[in-house]
Amino acid sequence: MQGSRPCNGVYMAFQSMLIVLIGSTPEYHVEQQQVPSSSQELVQRVVFTEDFDSIVTEWFLVKQQAYKVNLAGSLFFAGLLVGNIVFGPLSDRIGRRPVYLSGLFLEVVFGYVTAFAPSYEVFAASRLLVGLMNGGISVVCFVLVQEYVGKSYWAMTGTLTSLCFAIGIALFAALGYLIRPWRNLTTAANSFGVLFFLLSVTLPESPRWLYCQGQTDRAEQVDWITYFYGHLKNSSMSSFLFLVVHPVLRIRTVVLMYVWYSCSLVYYGLTLGAGDSSGSRYMNVAMYGLVEVPAYPLCMYFINKHWAGRRKSMSSFLCLSGSACFCTVLIPDNTGSVLSVTLLALLGKLMVSAAFNIAYIYTSELYPTVIRNAGLGVCSMSCRVGGIMAPFVPSMRVLHSSVPFTVFSLSGLSAGCLGLMLPETLNGPTAETLDELTGPTGSRVLENKVRQLQSSFI
């Protein structure tokens, strides 16, 4: 049943990409109409010339109201940010499984609120709540699956999750092509969440977390190899404070936060801009999903080679993505070379997808078990900031057509260079406790600092 988590990436992709199709703006023009009155007032009337149903056509989100489409997308990612903050520590306290199942159930509920929203305000609020639940469970269940298996399988399970997300984007494009009314499409896409919730009900709790809580008997009931968990000890320290106080974790966290931010900004910026490209909006969305598929076997090959590893592979893919986006800037406007720009953008998407996948795997290996969920939560928070900004970056082409790709290029190149500061984790042991990073004496000193900080906040 652990395969239900990677497959859940399909449902998460549906929710992330929903605004691309249901928020698409069809062709329209504005007519001037005279209102019979003493002042003979002129009013504008929007007329849509394309047979297409979306939130734009229902609530006339054009002209001065067009920003509301991007706002709805940003609210979803803002929800992801809040969810990461709240659900990560909660899962460390009460367990991975109950937090994951509760979040998934509520995400489905709020997803149906989106489908039947009577007004834009309710629609926007529901996207915020869906994002909150989505963000909460995404990191929690990623950690849950990683803690089911040994480190040798982390790359495989992480890659499988990302692959399912990419396939989900393509499947959502096909679903959108078959189901055109936006409310029907939203209902159909959200119904997949019901299926994945039912598949996830029988998932067991993380054996690593159970051992950390001293629940040895329950942990041994989970049918996985657990011989090396006996030395794990429960920590009552504030996880987030330790990320700040710990000298090793502090540097890693700052670098990883920027890497995750850049990955998210470039990944979602390119993906959400697919609907604005020339040609069929459904084909564009499908291409931006399918182009990720070769990225995963590619990154799996490189990260397991001693001459590449996690660090060099992630940095290289980020730099290649930034370079591809920079090359689109060099193509002059109005030269009939739209296909070349599209190909370079797809190449950039392929490369950043590989980097994003490695970032998930790499980050899991850089944090000890007792603080892994908090570390992933902080990095994912930074990732969501990039996601919040991503919907607005493609619209910056009104300033100049090269501005969005310039932003993506600088983000990818700078993150790739900064990522070289991190240590390599290939074939190295995974830390289970903080003692393994600083030694027992160093941990006690840091624990005292954390307690002092905690007391100052009370």
Structural topology:
Blueprint (H helix, E strand, L loop, with lengths): L3 H19 L5 E7 L7 E7 L6 H5 L7 H28 L1 H20 L4 H29 L5 H25 L3 H19 L6 H6 L3 H6 L17 H7 L1 H26 L8 H10 L4 H9 L5 H21 L8 H29 L2 H21 L13 H16 L16 H23 L1
Antiparallel strand pairs: 1-2
Helix pairs in contact: 1-5, 1-6, 1-7, 3-4, 3-5, 3-16, 4-5, 4-7, 5-16, 6-12, 6-15, 10-11, 10-16, 11-15, 11-16, 11-17, 13-15, 14-15, 14-17, 15-16
Task: Describe what this molecule looks like in 3D.
This protein is mainly alpha-helical and 458 residues long. It folds into 2 domains: 1-203, Growth Hormone, Chain: A (Up-down Bundle); 242-424, Up-down Bundle (Growth Hormone, Chain: A). The chain is built from 18 helices and 2 strands. It has helices at residues 4-22, 55-59, 67-94, 96-115, 120-148, 154-178, 182-200, 207-212, 216-221, 239-245, 247-272, 281-290, 295-303, 309-329, 338-366, 369-389, 403-418, 435-457, and strands spanning 28-34, 42-48. It has a two-stranded antiparallel sheet. The protein is globular and about 75 Å long. Mean pLDDT is 80; it is low at 1-5, 38-43 and 223-237. It is found in: Membrane. It comes from Takifugu rubripes (Japanese pufferfish). The chain crosses the membrane at residues 69-87, 99-118, 124-145, 157-179, 185-203, 281-303, 315-332, 338-362. InterPro entries: MFS, MFS_dom, MFS_trans_sf. It is a multi-pass membrane protein.
Averaged pLDDT: 80
Computed over alpha carbons, the radius of gyration is 23 Å
CATH homologous superfamily descriptor of the largest domain: MFS general substrate transporter like domains
Q: DSSP strand (E) fraction?
A: under 5%
CATH domain class of the largest domain: Mainly Alpha
CATH level-3 fold name of the largest domain: Growth Hormone, Chain: A
Shape: globular
* CATH arch. level architecture of the largest domain: Up-down Bundle
Give me the side-by-side strand order of the main sheet: 1-2
Structural class call reads mainly alpha
What is the H/E order? Answer: HEEHHHHHHHHHHHHHHHHH
Q: Indicate how many domains the architecture comprises.
A: 2
- Contiguous uncertain segments of 5+ residues: 1-5, 38-43, 223-237
Q: Based on the structure, what is the oligomeric state of the protein chains?
A: single chain
InterPro entries: MFS, MFS_dom, MFS_trans_sf
Main location: membrane
Keywords: Membrane, Transmembrane, Transmembrane helix
Subcellular location: Membrane
